[in-house]
Amino acid sequence: MSVRQRKTATLMLVTLLLLSVILGCAKQENTPESTSTDGAANEKSITLSWPRDIGTMNPHVYNPSQLFAQSMIYEPLVSYKQGGKLEPALAESWTISKDGKIYTFKLRKGVKFSDGTPFNAAIVKKNFDAVMKNEKTHSWLGVVGVLDKTEAVDDSTFRMTLKEPYYPVLQDLSVVRPFRFLGEAGFPDDGDTSKGIKKPVGTGPWMLDEYKQDEYATFKRNPNYWGTAPKVDKIIVKIIPDGETRVMAFEKGDLDLIYGEGVISLDAFKQLRDTDKYVTKLSEPVGTRSLLLNSSNPKLADLRVRLALQHGFNKQAMVEGVTSGLEEKADTVLSKNYPYTNVDLQSVDYDVEKSKALLDEAGWKLPAGGSVREKDGQQLDFELIFDKTDPIQKAMAETIQAEWGELGVKVNLTGLELTVQIKRLRSNQFDLYFWYNYGAPYDPHSFINVIAKKSFGISETLSALPMKKDLDQQVHEALSSTDETKRQELYASILTTLQEQSAIVPISYIKKTAVYQKKITNFVFPANRDENPFEGIEIGK
Amino acid sequence: MISYIGKRMVAVIPIVLFATLVTFALIHISPVDPAEAYLTAAHIYPTPEILEQKRHEFGLDQPLLTQYMHTLQRISRLDFGTSYLTNKPVWDEVKARLPATVELALSSMVLSIVVSIPLGILAAMRKNGWIDMLSRGISYFGASIPQFWLGYLLIFFFSVRLDWLPVEGRGTWQHLVLPTLTLSLVLIALYTRLLRSSILEQLQETYVQYARTRGIRERVIMLKHVLKIAIAPLITGMGMNLGKLLTGTIIVEQVFSWPGFGRYFVEAIFNRDIPVIQCYVFLAACLFIVCNLLVDLVHLYMDPRISSKGRAEQ
Known about the structure:
The complex is a heterodimer of chains A (541) and B (314).
Chain A: H1 3-25, E1 45-50, H2 67-73, E2 78-81, E3 85-88, E4 91-96, E5 102-107, H3 121-132, H4 142-146, E6 147-154, E7 157-162, H5 169-174, E8 206-212, E9 216-221, E10 234-239, H6 243-252, E11 257-260, H7 266-275, E12 278-293, H8 303-311, H9 315-323, E13 328-329, H10 352-361, E14 374-375, E15 378-379, E16 381-387, H11 391-407, E17 410-416, H12 418-426, E18 432-436, H13 445-452, H14 458-461, H15 468-480, H16 484-501, E19 504-517, E20 520-521, E21 538-539
Parallel strand pairs in A: 1-10, 16-17, 16-18
Antiparallel strand pairs in A: 2-3, 4-5, 5-7, 6-7, 8-9, 9-10, 11-19, 12-18, 12-19, 13-19, 14-15, 20-21
Chain B: H1 2-29, H2 34-41, H3 48-57, H4 64-76, H5 90-125, H6 130-144, H7 147-161, H8 173-203, H9 206-213, H10 218-230, H11 232-247, H12 250-255, H13 261-270, H14 274-302
């Protein structure tokens, strides 16, 4: 080795050493937001990640505020619990007039906002007024369309009068937005919360403590909370947009909990589950992944074709293969954990021979030497549109294409941007479409509502059903009926018709996933799809 | 020289105007109606009445020319409208996020210069030696590995396995290490090879042989003569890459949860937040124009033979 070479080698060595010393010193410092259970003041905290910034925490507006975080600060009058049970929240009790038009709520006494101001009928009315000021924005929610007037009868009595009876009023009031309550100090001077709020003041168990946009948010316990105080002192939400990074941060121990729908890939979930180092959980179904067979297309207007298509693919194998068993095969469009949906329905099982026979019967025959069925010179082909950024939809679309291809049905796949996809649904420009229902607490009433109401795409999908008019009538009756038994009958009839008509083909039940460190106990998924899971959560040793 | 600079500055105006036209056209060739995009982003169901109301609010019911003139007026005041998603002025949002991105881009630029210049020189001086082989290895690796994958690898080794550095976030200098490494590797790969070949080219020149025969030491030849000329292509590369860096931190910001401009843009794309996309495209265009101009001015400074026509006088 020459002198020069030796010098170079020494230089490299020194650089390497320096680099490792620097990196060694760089051992991550505990930033205030990453203190864990054994922090200085023995504070019990839980750190989780969320893909998006929590937003402005305005209870009356939508994106970018995140539902789970809004539900930590703000509370509803009525709370939606397991199995669709409605329980008192800020309203202690309520009465409904016989004609189903007047709802009178007795408000819980002694409730205070996080700033110590009292919660009363006047502030409830003020919040309702702020929401109704932007009625058009909230018109998707049934109660908004039928609300006639609101009154603060006395300090603890609030009354709502409807234009016409609408039974899911209480369900609609239990959703996370827009009908939750902001304290007086949060209101802007002109009272129009749609433009922004002064500060997030709610009655919920948590209050926003520290917040850095796009980086983190911390919530601490609301000292004025009326209910059972949370067991942990602090919830730290780190904003991590990338799923893989989220998993690595969790493995490193920076995160205690990963929770939500689609927040990590199914592969990552499986991998974490298989290590046995963590606890993994799947929720009850929160929604159904369905395939719409648009009956306004003359080929799909024939019930035999729709049934043949449903019989013609192995749902179980597809769900197992594509979602690694993390979604559950669905036989009915709505799972049975909603009110009124526990109805006996005949499932449409996988049966290739039956499928072929039905297609033959419908006149779609395989020409000699051909691979696509034909009738009157027309081929049996469809376009299946899917969200190109969704790997599950893509894989499922390809599976369906292959399986139906065997039957002699040609499927052309078109990957679209989500916004374009939704636009095609609403304008009824599709043959086959992946669709999801809304989940609790919106269903089953929101589901039957879109069956009858135009411009959502579902009513159009069902347009060629011979009993469509009756179906719409039943939906209207069910939504306005004040008779519980009659409502159940109507729901049973609607769901049976839909099942028999096979225009909305259930594929799988989507579930929420949760992965957490073993020190966390008492983790329960919220019954309301959009709420937070921090009620009752504890940290062990 | 001043007239050259002046002319170049004037030439920027039509290009910027063109950029505004492109960004404006983006809205109108997109298959999605901006009013509908707004409502979708805000999770509001687009009923016909509210769609009409929003179209009127955004001025989308005006003739195209009027709309374009309004866009121009607004952009000249750095008013890019309000984000559909956050309901805040886009320019304020961008301003709040730019420092993070600039910090990352500059640190990557500095690291790449600090590493690639000595590495490039050594690789050229020791052609086919081990250091040259090493630089070649780094270059192949840096140029071929996808940035997000490199990011994951670095996080896995340095954060999860060794627990030396944080996985994500911003705040301390430790947070800056891994994203900087990820971003700069590809630059190091590029600059090292560029400098190496440029130096080797110069070493063939007669002035180098003449200097050698005059007995000037190799190090002096390298630093005082060869490098001065060989570094020119590198400056061009760096100038062009600065723009690319400021706009290309998207993936790295996403992987490391870096709260910068790139991440904000990604979210805007997913939500069809058109004012933000417009602002981004416009700023990116301006940035490239400015970087291009800067590179030319540096060349002009380094080689005063460049005439007002922008080429070396014979």
